[in-house]
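Q: How would the structure tokens look for this protein?
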Amino acid sequence: RHAGAENLLRRNLCDREALLGPAHGATLASLGNLAGLLRARGRHEEAEPLLRRALNGCEMTLGMYHTDTLSCLNNLAMLLQARGKLQEAELYLGHAVKGSLAGLGPDHPDTITSLNNLGMLLRSAGRPTEAEALYRRALLAAEVRLGP
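A: Here is the predicted structure in token form.
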């Protein structure tokens, strides 16, 4: 089942690149979709360059504060974390948090997710005090958004 999905996603990506170009939003979405499937299948090494391409394209065409760009930052960071590249993952999650705060605001769901993801990374890196501070920030923002 996954093999069939992967073939469809690869064909979709090729078609979109040929018809729309490599920087079109639909092409970038196809990159992210294929990378997500590869990541789910444990093929992180194959997914990483696709996510890097998607992030680069989003930054160039949509800007740093667009939700798709911020989502790419988070997705790449989570993949890097899974690959044990914690310093690089922290860098990308830090950018995602800063971009989300500046572009979306402190209580936007994507900002809350970025704060939580960075907290999880710091906790797994043995930095529980820093992680707790981010978890508290995310919780407060969620309470502002959703109520206590």
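Residues 77 and 92 are 6 Å apart (CA to CA).

The two ends are 42 Å apart (CA to CA).

Upvote if useful.
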